[in-house]
Specification:
326 residues, alpha/beta, FAD/NAD(P)-binding domain, 2 domains, 5-stranded parallel beta sheet, 26% helix, binds flavin-adenine dinucleotide
Length: 326
């Protein structure tokens, strides 16, 4: 059985920041287990090529608390930055380790991955984000529409198609503009009469695209259901209209992976995990901390970086004697 001082689950911004802060604080060995063959899978898989990565996201400016920070840059530059961080801090990231379970084993927690790897540590930080589970609409999506109704951009985006984007946040606005740039006829349906949580750049862009006729804004529209219409998606709107699209993209955000957390013994408070009152993000399971989007009211990369710093402060306060001695 392998032993570490901290096992971090997930090599996204929060997991990497946690490992960096732990290293800087003299804690080791720290092992990160990442289910994909690369770090930052949300950014690799869900951000489109060349996407602007903004530190101000969901209208929230977050000042850096710890070592990691960044200014607006492209998706590719951001990923390069994170790979450099992993090298510079010599982080021990084990790829293709999909963590299935975390169980108590005496004073330690045992982390078990799908490959059969088991590591014990007094402290485990779960930083698996929320985008493994996209938020879905309340109505049923007919299985026949698979491949036509999407929750993220595919590697090869559609071109020359009639596309509906659903949502009113930064991701919806960026997706609509990107699909317009790919030569699609783009419609954006949002249930509110106005955007209220876009950052300034996305607001300006979507307004310019709308003015130029590249994106058709359908404000204050609500969808009640979907059906198949030959090879198209028939969208039923609340006002009684039915419109066919080649593709529908839902950009409604991500969902807390409650089943995974509850399987680790973490108690939930509604949709969110119960956490300590000191903002160190320890769960009800002693030694099991959460970081990043799992603990954020409004998730963003800067908030994920900062949560790593707070978690390590909490670990040092409560478990310093257990993790400091290498
Ligand atoms: C399309 C889109 C655009 C966005 N644009 C911005 C932006 O411009 N600026 C901004 O600040 N924020 C943006 N965000 C939000 C930002 O990406 C998240 O807030 C941030 O990535 C959260 O970091 P995290 O480390 O908590 O989780 P994630 O980045 O989701 O990382 C979680 C990691 O854990 C791994 N993992 C999951 N389950 C397991 C498991 N069981 N075992 C092992 N590993 C596991 C995943 O593979 C992943 O690498 C955007 C989000 C989306 C979807």
């Amino acid at each position: 059985m392998e032993h570490a001082k901290i096992v971090v689950v997930g090599a996204g911004p929060a997991g990497i920041a946690t490992a960096v802060e732990a290293k800087v604080a003299g804690i080791g060995p720290v092992v990160i287990l990442e289910k994909r063959p690369h770090p930052c899978d949300t950014i690799v898989s869900l951000y489109h090529e060349g996407k602007r990565v903004d530190p101000v996201y969901r209208k929230m400016k977050v000042e850096p608390l710890g070592v990691l920070s960044f200014d607006t840059e492209s998706r590719e530059e951001f990923l390069e930055r994170m790979n450099k961080v992993i090298k510079e801090y010599d982080l021990d990231v084990r790829y293709k380790e999909d963590v299935q379970k975390i169980v108590r084993e005496g004073d330690n927690l045992k982390v078990i991955s799908g490959s059969g790897l088991e590591i014990e540590a007094p402290v485990v930080v779960v930083a698996i984000g929320v985008f493994g589970k996209p938020v879905k609409p309340s109505y049923k999506i007919p299985s026949k529409l698979k491949g036509k109704v999407l929750f993220s951009l595919p590697k090869e985006p559609p071109q020359g198609k009639k596309v509906l984007v659903v949502g009113g946040g930064d991701t919806a606005a960026e997706t609509a503009c990107y699909l317009a740039d790919c030569g699609n006829d783009v419609y954006l349906s949002y249930r509110r009469p106005e955007f209220f949580r876009l950052n300034d750049v996305n607001r300006k862009n979507i307004e310019e695209y709308a003015k130029a006729g590249k994106v058709n804004l359908m404000m204050a529209t609500d969808i009640t259901g979907l059906d198949q219409d030959d090879d198209k998606v028939l969208v039923h709107f609340k006002d009684g209209s039915d419109v066919a699209y080649d593709y529908v993209f839902y950009c409604l955000g991500g969902m807390t992976p409650a089943v995974f957390l509850e399987g680790c013994g973490v108690e939930m408070d509604g949709k969110k995990p119960k956490l300590d009152d000191n903002f160190y993000y320890e769960s009800n399971v002693p030694g099991l901390f959460l970081a990043g989007d799992l603990v954020a009211l409004k998730g963003s990369i800067m908030a994920a970086f900062n949560s790593g710093k707070r978690v390590v402060e909490g670990i040092l306060k409560k478990y310093g004697d257990k993790v400091r001695d290498c």
